[in-house]
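R.M. (postdoc): so does anyone remember the format we settled on? I'll just put the structure tokens first.
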């Protein structure tokens, strides 16, 4: 195979190298400036197209990214790295099936391509195919023992299996050799039960200035630093660290609030009038969807339900949005534009396809859960595709929910970056939840997190009844249930129910901008805001 530099104009080689470096570091503006100089000279060279595809993907322009990369692959069909690149582009667009297919092809073409094995492990993990992900990650680590992200993802696997001490040791091992590895610092922060020590604050600050730290590293370290400062009771400094980390992330990708709100309005309009649902009235009766904002208790609800003898907790499945994306591609229209053209047979087809894709989760138990929080955006489609399915909408105090989202390092959840965007996102969720609770009370149930903390048995009995399940005492001791949990709440659901999870009061008036974004009044001022914040530091 010819080298990638074949027929490349020598004039643009340094610029192309600079573009690749900028893309690897997440510096979209810098990459774009380089490409603006390159493209007038040699726009159709496959390497130029590959860089252009990477820029489009970084900017969130997924259709353009795929188109550019497909053109590049047409010129170099046997290049494993090119198949790796398009795999990651598919993954960034949320099309995990195509991503896995492309990455598997890259691994077959070049079994020694470390990045392809690692990326394959990432995509398999996102699809909860953990048994397949672990060998791919081990292969990446065997090829590159110092690959921090591959090692960190293996540590994540230990975390979700409840092996906290082993996971912490693995993250610390990474940092011993690469103190700038943001993924390891965030991995420690995400263990939840592990408190940072005073010296960790200084270590993180020092690592953020390391010349080898990428923007991804600094974003992850900034989020970890905020956790360390919170552990120390320095709430103002913790919020400042979060603001810096989120601002750095926003230089790469800004959440388009206007487009999101327009999309939600279009979805509401598409499902406002009764639609022809799937032909089989009880289709989907074997599925329970658990939706809500991240950090609102969705993992806890799934853990409770998975403690029932009839229920398998499948986790955060990507199948529903992937099916809707597939339908959009076939119809040449984005969701929900094609909803009005759907017949009952079309919804039946989608519902049956969903059940086929998720059948493996019901091999041992008759009912499975689907706990992808953002599926609240698709409740209308769920009701049409799977009219027999139950939908549990999880609610938690909006201030606590949004603060927790803001403190969590959630890649591709760009609405978490600012208080105003968080407020807009929560309001859209709130309106959607209210609409479907009113329209489908027999199949849509609201679970209140704070009510469960106050009256756990009553709340759990109500949850089981709403899901059509008889009460089982094992659901009250959900923390004893052994299963893989791959969400940020993996540690908490293995503990008895805690009643001191509220954090907003510790920040006092510092959260007034978030209160305003949620339409809440400011906190009544206390004699000194410092006393208000420092006075609530006794629990974590």
């Amino acid at each position: 195979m010819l080298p990638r530099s074949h027929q490349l104009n020598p004039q643009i080689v340094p610029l192309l190298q600079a573009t690749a470096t900028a893309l690897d570091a997440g510096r979209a503006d810098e990459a774009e400036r380089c490409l603006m100089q390159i493209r007038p000279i040699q726009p159709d060279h496959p390497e130029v197209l590959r860089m252009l595809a990477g820029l489009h993907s970084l900017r969130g322009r997924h259709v353009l990214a795929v188109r550019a990369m497909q053109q590049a692959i047409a010129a170099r069909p046997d290049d494993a790295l090119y198949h790796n690149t398009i795999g990651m582009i598919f993954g960034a667009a949320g099309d995990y099936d195509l991503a896995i297919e492309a990455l598997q092809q890259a691994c077959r073409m070049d079994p020694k391509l470390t990045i392809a094995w690692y990326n394959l492990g990432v995509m398999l993990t996102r699809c909860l195919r953990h048994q397949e992900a672990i060998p791919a990650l081990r292969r990446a680590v065997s090829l590159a023992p110092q690959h921090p992200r591959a090692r960190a993802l293996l540590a994540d696997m230990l975390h979700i299996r409840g092996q906290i001490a082993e996971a912490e040791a693995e993250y610390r091992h990474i940092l011993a050799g690469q103190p700038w590895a943001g993924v390891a610092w965030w991995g420690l922060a995400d263990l939840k039960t592990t408190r940072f020590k005073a010296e960790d604050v200084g270590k993180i600050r020092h690592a953020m200035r390391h010349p080898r730290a990428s923007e991804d590293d600094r974003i992850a370290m900034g989020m970890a630093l905020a956790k360390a400062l919170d552990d120390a009771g320095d709430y103002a400094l913790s919020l400042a660290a979060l603001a810096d980390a989120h601002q750095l992330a926003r230089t790469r990708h800004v959440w388009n609030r206007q487009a999101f709100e327009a999309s939600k309005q279009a979805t509401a309009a598409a499902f406002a009038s009764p639609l022809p649902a799937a032909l089989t009235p009880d289709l989907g009766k074997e599925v329970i969807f658990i939706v809500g904002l991240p950090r609102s208790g969705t993992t806890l609800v799934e853990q409770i339900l998975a403690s029932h003898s009839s229920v398998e907790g499948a986790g955060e499945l990507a199948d529903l949005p992937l099916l809707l994306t597939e339908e959009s591609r076939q119809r040449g229209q984005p969701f929900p534009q094609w909803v009005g053209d759907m017949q009952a047979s079309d919804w039946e087809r989608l519902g049956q396809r969903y059940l086929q894709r998720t059948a493996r989760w019901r091999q041992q138990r008759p009912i499975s859960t689907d706990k992808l929080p953002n599926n609240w955006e698709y409740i209308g489609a769920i009701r049409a595709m799977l009219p027999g399915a139950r939908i549990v909408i999880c609610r938690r105090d909006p201030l606590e929910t949004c603060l927790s989202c803001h403190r969590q390092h959630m890649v591709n959840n760009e609405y978490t970056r600012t208080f105003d965007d968080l407020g807009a996102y929560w309001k859209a969720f709130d309106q959607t939840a209210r609409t479907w609770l009113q329209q489908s009370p027999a199949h849509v149930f609201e679970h209140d997190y704070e009510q469960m903390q106050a009256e756990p048995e009553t709340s759990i009995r109500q949850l089981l009844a709403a899901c059509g399940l008889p009460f089982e005492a094992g659901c009250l001791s959900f923390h004893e249930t052994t299963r893989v949990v791959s969400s940020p709440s993996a540690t908490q659901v293995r503990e008895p129910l805690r009643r001191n999870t509220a954090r907003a009061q510790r920040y006092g008036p510092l959260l007034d901008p978030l209160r305003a974004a949620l339409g809440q009044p400011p906190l009544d001022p206390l004699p000194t805001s410092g006393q208000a914040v420092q006075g609530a530091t006794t629990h974590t």
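R.M.: ...and that's the designed sequence above, right after the tokens. Also worth knowing: The longest helix spans residues 419-439. The beta strands are 287-291, 311-312, 367-370, 390-395, 444-448.
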